[in-house]
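Dear colleagues,

As part of the handover before I leave the project, I'm documenting each prediction I ran so the next person doesn't have to rerun anything. This entry is a single chain, and its sequence is reproduced below.
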Amino acid sequence: MNILIVGLGSIARKHILAIRRNGSHRISALRSGPNPRHKEDGVEDIFSIEEAGDKDLDFAIISNPTSEHAAAIEKLLPLRIPLFIEKPVVADVRSGQALAKKISDAGILTYVGCNLRFLGCLRFLKEYLERHPDRRINEANVYCGSDLRTWRPGTDYRQGYSARPELGGGVNIDLIHDVDYTLWMFGQPEYTRSVCRSSSSLGIEAFDYANFCLVYPGFCASVILNYYRPEYRRSMEIVFDDSVMTIDVAGNTVKDNAGNVLFSSDERIPDTYFAQMNHFIKLVETGTTRCSNDFAAGLSTLRICTNEGSR
């Protein structure tokens, strides 16, 4: 396959590794200028959409800064090729709404990169809930906390896109994965309430704390995200009538309240990029134009994360 990548940062390199594990594919990167600071071995640099159009592309990956997603999608739409869009789908709902109709009219496949859907412990829980639809859930609690200062060693965390709202940063959309897999697990809520703040010792402008309450007919799901927890923790807890199920997302395990291990795997979150890319490539190969996590679904998730889904 001929694949174009827009944006060649750290997340793009993860996608490149996943593509190479999938098979032998030709990869080009659309660069912003003739002397890029970073080059990737085996990836051809190109410098215009016109040049990309001559490549007989099979699909494109949009992995540039979130604030530039909408412009990249606009430029690629005339090529009418499938688009793999790194999360979050765009920086704001308004620009996404304008694009949604254009994407629909183009009739192309879009997929929003949410690789946690391919993690074993979460797939186990999803399948468990589907097999036991009558199990009463009283409460669900999702948590993701980590220290932004340790994310990119050797850089000033205050200058990275995660800390800068004008680039699409902020824990509410940077950690959109955890809201996404909650919606994947339980569906769309009846309504939401949220609190987003930037008041910790990090001293950044973007939100460093977010608390979402997703209201379902029989229970509420709480999603808490932060940038300042010294020790990384990512987890989900389901409180049933008669038991509690704890999902260690970072450790890829599921346990009940008696300590019994219901699921365990040595696979870790970085391993899910291959499964995700393999899934997307199969969608492209079959010629489908629809999937469960397309642009419209990603925009719906973004509405909640930016407080535009609350009422």
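The CA atoms of residues 303 and 309 lie 5 Å apart. Residues 272-286 form the longest helix (15 residues).

All the best with the project,
I.
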